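hey all, quick one before standup. I had two proteins in the batch that finished overnight and I want to keep them in one place so we stop losing track of which output belongs to which input. First protein below, input sequence then structure tokens straight from the run.
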Amino acid sequence: MTFFKIRAVQTRAIVSFVGACGLAGVASGVLSQSANAASVLEGAFTEEQAVRGQTLYYQHCLQCHGETMAGVDKAPALAGPQFGSTWNNAPLAALVERIQTMPPDKPASLTREQSVDILTYILWYNGLPLGEQELDTSTEVLARMTFQTPAP
């Protein structure tokens, strides 16, 4: 092989390597973006979803948790400092699982979608902002997102 042929092979190898690294960087960026769910502090649910949740809350939760979500009798608060300190940094999946154990007289009577809708109303009531897309109901997404108390 002549010097020029060797040099051409080396150049193609370098170009291929650099191109592959660039594509790998782009691909890993896309993968990491899709692997990171939106933050509840940046708006992870829509107004429509929170309104559906409000309707469900009034049908299924109001009697025990009250209109202001302060809790009635032994039912815990779903808003405010006590709720925030209990659930801060907890995965949203844990909150959905808890909602699905309710109401106490009819556990598991709500669908996962209904439980997520109720959760969005609770998030909104706790001062978290609305977003452009509905909160995903998949366990994978909800497990990656955590409840965070909004800054005052």
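OK second protein, same deal, sequence then tokens:
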Amino acid sequence: MKYIQLEPQADIAIIKINRPEALNALNTDVIFELSRTIDIIGVDDDIKAVIITGAGERSFCATGKMISAEEAEQIGLVNKVIALGQDDILPPSAPEGDSVKEKERSNQVAKILNKKLMEECILVAQQITGNSFTAVKTSKMLINRGMDADIATGLRLEIYGWALCFAHEDRQRMMSAFLNKGKK
């Protein structure tokens, strides 16, 4: 594929939109390849979580209007914004007026942020994959179905999902693992 890279990492798949020269803007070719990649992952029972990212450090994907990470979080487009911390080792500041050095520094800082972002994404994906596959899959399906339902139907779906997960063989294995974790 030309515009989509698939990077499986154990039970996590990382999908990377690879059009950094166009800020990873979506076009029909990218959408076709992305759809095809999702179809491939969808039939792979070994993949339990998916991270979608964009190549380069300038943007995830070019949604027409440029918005900041903070605004994306406020409107619910992203769950969390990753920021530099006190422990991050940053490159030295560029001399005043040296736009070339300032651009280099800016690119280096962007790479540090991108690395932190991917580490956080993988951590969250690992937390998800540490749960019962059946429970995660059932929860996702019921959340998606429940969004289009009234409250009574949503509650019935939740009870149905709980019953499915409670009756599944994963429950005993996961419950034993949880109880044994407390004994250590």
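Flagging for whoever picks this up: The CA atoms of residues 108 and 184 lie 42 Å apart. The longest strand covers residues 4-9.
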